[in-house]
Amino acid sequence: MPFARSWKPALRLAVKGLAAVLVVGLVSAGIAALAQAQPLAQPPAQSAGDGETIFKTKCTPCHTIGGGHLVGPDLKDVTTRRTRDWLTQWISAPDQMLAAKDPIAVQLLAENNNIPMPNLALTEAEVASIIAYFETNPTVLPAQQPALPTGDPAIGRELFTGAVRFQNGGPPCMGCHSVAGIGALGGGALGPDLTPAFNKYGDAGLAQFLNSVPTVTMNAVWSGQPLTPDEQADIWAFLQQASVSGRPIQALGQLAALALAGTLVLLNIAHFYWRRRLVAVRRPLVARSRISS
To answer: Which residues are CB-neighbours of 188 under 8 A, at least 6 positions away?
Structure first.
């Protein structure tokens, strides 16, 4: 059957071709379905108007745009001085960039009295909106804060330590911060030492910080129970006084006394422990010597 033998190879070839076409079709359909199920990541939505709101809410206590240095640098034309990628990383996580020793971040820290920019926990869209706002080339001058009344550093000290409660129920500063001149240990360690705060932030900068508390942690605590103008003035006066005074000699003496007392307690505990242990060892030895004699 020469005819049958001649068409069989052609049939096998046609079947293989059809199978290949089906496989290609199935793969293409799968890729299309996957692309439909997982669309390409889109850049975060951004709005210069939203960026303006965020900037004026969270950034103006430390920055101006065209108004000169405040607590942090003037951000005029910042988008021409820094790349978008760098700005995105810096605004999103300044603490991580400082930890990674980014050279620009380290330089900015040194140029601004070693005051680190706080991590404001902004979303990608919020960061993109702030950068979009910068690109509109706005001008934001320092906020005109009402003049504080004359503060009393003695009352500020009482408020700081918690001896006098804040009018709106906020916690005492000493729970998180330390400062020179308030005892041997000087306060909490959750927040930075505020002894140099007045020199770092300056007169206006510290006043703005007390009025707006822009960091995430402090804003969460104080937004619902803000300091009154009188309390701001008293704390301001206390921190001004603390900035020119070191930890007093009597506080250093108290620290030394505490250290000595702790050492004596540990020595007494060790002596008691070893004495009991030696007695426990000697009794069996004495008993054995009596039996043997």
So the answer is: 174, 175, 176, 177, 178
d(CA 63, CA 133): 14
CATH number, domain 153-243: 1.10.760.10
Task: Compute how many other C-beta atoms are within 10 angstroms of the C-beta atom of residue 171.
Answer: 13
- Specify which residues 187 forms β-bridges with: 178
Quick check: helix, strand or coil at residue 268? Answer: helix
d(CA 35, CA 33): 5
Q: Which CATH architecture is the domain 48-134 placed in?
A: Orthogonal Bundle (1.10)
Q: Alpha carbon of 273 to those of 263, 265, 270, 282: distances in Å?
A: 15, 12, 5, 14
Q: Are 67 and 140 in contact (CB under 8 A)?
A: yes
Instruction: Assess whether the region 48-134 and the region 153-243 belong to the same CATH fold.
Output: yes
Domain ranges of the chain: 48-134, 153-243, 248-286
Of 280, 195, 205, nearest to 244 (Cα)?
195
Instruction: Output the tens digit of pLDDT for each of the chain's 293 residues.
Output: 454 555 566 556 555 655 555 555 655 666 555 555 545 455 667 889 999 999 998 898 889 999 998 888 999 999 999 999 999 999 999 999 999 999 999 999 999 888 889 899 999 999 999 999 999 999 998 867 667 788 899 999 999 988 999 999 989 988 888 887 675 556 777 778 888 888 888 887 788 788 877 677 787 788 788 899 999 999 999 998 887 655 444 444 544 555 565 666 666 676 666 566 555 655 665 556 556 55
Residue given tokens 């040194």 in the structure block: 110
Phi, psi torsion values for 214, nearest 5 degrees: -80, -15
Token pair, residue 92, equals 């999103």
**Cα distance from N-terminal residue to C-terminal residue, the chain:** 121
Beta bridge partners of 102: none
What token pair was written down for 64? Answer: 């101006």
